[in-house]
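Morning run. Coffee first, then this:
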Amino acid sequence: MTTLLEFPCDFPLKIMGANAAEFAQTIALVVVRHAPDFDPASMEMRPSKAGNYLALTCTVRAVSQAQLDALYRDLTAHPMVKVVL
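And here it is:
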């Protein structure tokens, strides 16, 4: 399979979900499971205009397409997550 990415690379993931107190911490745990060197303090957070949703940007040091695929699968399957870009 051909990929347009060259690994390793910094890869930003945008994760959106309900603006709940534990959302960012929960997502950080999922990301660290797949990218152990991810620093949760580097996570960018942006609430929606009405404050109902929270958009997180997590930039991971991706080492393979398989790693990104597994991370994407775990994030999209999580009940707190609405969208992953």
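Helices lie at 23-34, 65-77. Good start to the day.
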